[in-house]
Design a protein that fits this description.
Length: 476
């Protein structure tokens, strides 16, 4: 496919920019550009065809089954988009006077109340732009808390090895030393190792729950008790709350801080770099440290922004990705308390349905009931037939399905992590199961063929290492 720059033809361009409705200002010579901006010149038709062409070459939730474990590629109701495109939400400016955006402030406050009810926390900030960003902000709260008590020796954050990879990264960025503890044979936190790891240098624990194996830690109450007992705080990675929302609340399990990915759990289109939102919730005793711009009731009536007394400061410009918050509130209000709970039940039911059906052919890494996702290990298939998780992923693409997450979590060899999500029907899952089984038969009959996959996608196998090491991000 040609790039826009290659299609460009002198004279095809027409300015689509509306005439300014404010007086034009002239830039000083120093500030203005010496040579014209080399933008491609294209007609609207050419531009439309280019992007439609690109769209046809990608795979999205509207194309088919997309069981990308941990990423939750569930259906995002169009109604959310309608709400986010209302002029009163979309056409505002962050510096507008508060009294002109009362409805928007109300959206933030209502979403905060809903998330508090769902998570068992007392306050939220919506500044963080994504999950990992939320983790960073959340861990900074832990840091500010210990500092405020003059407890300087708490420099370590404990992270179990079944945590999401962003957990140790965020803790490190916040200036902590990460103490990694291995999982027990059942995939849950090894309680004895946790007991040995905690001490008066423990700032806290970051727990991904359900963990990256798709398991709900059965010892969760004991875990939070051990950490609190040592004087540390408990951080809940709730990026993916799909399995527990409406059913169990981290705030009731002994957690002090949580982040939630609105773009995974509360339905916002994501992938391809679209905006996300990783609100951070905390218990009352940490409220004072939250980032700037909390929505509060003003003395004279109405809502406004206020900065918490001992705020950790700003982690993002203005108030975060507000339109993602609008989508989340739309989703929460559409489903209602009962609908949220049903969504969780179906997310877990769907994952267990697929897990059980696939376990005839593929080995499930850790047995027993899973939550919203589960992990297969193809190590034995690789040993016997030389077919890897990557080969199977490519064969799935050939069969019109997006592959699951591959080679994650790192503690499982030849991993495929499957999350069907609650919005898929039994028929769709049955089709996907049939594809997985057909591929398994092909592996047995003709393993070499699997290395050739995919055959009919716009591109076949790419050099992923070269793409990561030497990305070509510029045309010239
Ligand atoms: C996706 C995810 C994250 C990171 O969220 P981003 O929005 O991608 O930064 C963190 N933890 C878990 C468990 C996740 O699934």
């Amino acid at each position: 496919m040609k790039l826009l720059f290659e299609i460009s033809k002198e004279g095809h361009g027409n300015s689509l920019l509306a005439k300014p409705d404010v007086p034009e200002a002239t830039l000083s010579e120093k500030a203005s550009r010496g040579i014209p901006l080399p933008l491609p010149q294209l007609s609207e038709t050419e531009l439309g065809r280019h992007y439609t062409g690109l769209m046809k070459r990608t795979f999205g939730v509207n194309d088919g089954f997309y069981p990308l474990g941990s990423c939750t590629m569930k259906y995002n109701p169009r109604l959310n988009e309608d709400m986010a495109s209302l002029a009163g939400f979309g056409n505002i400016h962050p510096l507008q006077p508060e009294h002109t955006v009362q409805g928007c402030l109300e959206v933030i406050r209502e979403t905060e109340q809903a998330l508090c009810e769902i998570s068992g926390m007392d306050a939220f900030t919506f500044q963080p732009a994504a999950g990992a960003h939320g983790e960073f902000a959340g861990v900074m709260l832990v840091k500010a808390y210990h500092k405020s008590r003059g407890d300087a020796k708490r420099t370590k954050i404990i992270v179990p090895d079944a945590a999401h990879g962003t957990n140790p990264a965020s803790a490190t960025m916040a200036g902590f030393t990460v103490v990694n503890i291995p999982s027990a044979a059942d995939g849950c936190v090894d309680i004895e190792r946790l007991r040995q790891a905690v001490g008066d240098d423990t700032a806290g624990l970051m727990l991904t729950n359900p963990n990256t194996l798709g398991l709900f830690d059965k010892n969760i109450l004991e875990i939070t008790k051990i950490v609190h007992g040592a004087g540390g705080l408990n951080y809940y990675d709730g990026a993916n709350l799909n399995a527990i929302m409406g059913i169990a609340r981290p705030g009731d399990m002994g957690f002090d801080v949580i982040h939630i990915n609105l773009h995974k759990t509360f339905s916002t289109p994501h992938g391809g770099g679209g905006p996300g939102s990783g609100p951070v919730g905390c218990k009352d005793f940490l409220r004072d440290f939250l980032p700037v711009y909390q929505v509060v009731e003003k003395d004279g009536g109405g809502l406004g922004f206020a900065n918490p007394d001992r705020t950790i400061g700003s982690v993002k410009a203005f108030y975060g990705h507000f339109l993602v918050v609008v989508r989340a509130l739309t989703y929460i209000k559409t489903l209602g308390a009962e609908g949220i709970r049903r969504a969780a039940i179906h997310a877990v039911l769907n994952a267990n349905y697929m897990r059980t059906k696939l376990s005839d052919c593929y080995e499930v890494a850790y047995g027993g009931l899973c939550m919203h996702e589960f992990v297969l290990t193809l190590q034995k298939i690789k040993d016997r037939w030389g077919v890897s998780a990557l080969d199977v992923a490519k064969a799935l693409l050939e069969n019109g399905m997006h592959p699951p997450t591959m080679y994650f979590p790192l503690i499982v060899h030849e991993a495929l992590m499957i999350e069907p999500t609650e919005t898929e029907s039994k028929e769709t899952m049955d089709e996907a199961i049939a594809v997985f089984k057909k591929i398994y038969k092909e592996i047995e009959a003709n393993p070499e063929k699997l290395h050739e996959m995919p055959l009919s996608t716009p591109v076949r196998r790419l050099d992923e290492v070269a793409a990561a090491r030497n990305p070509r991000l510029r045309y010239v």
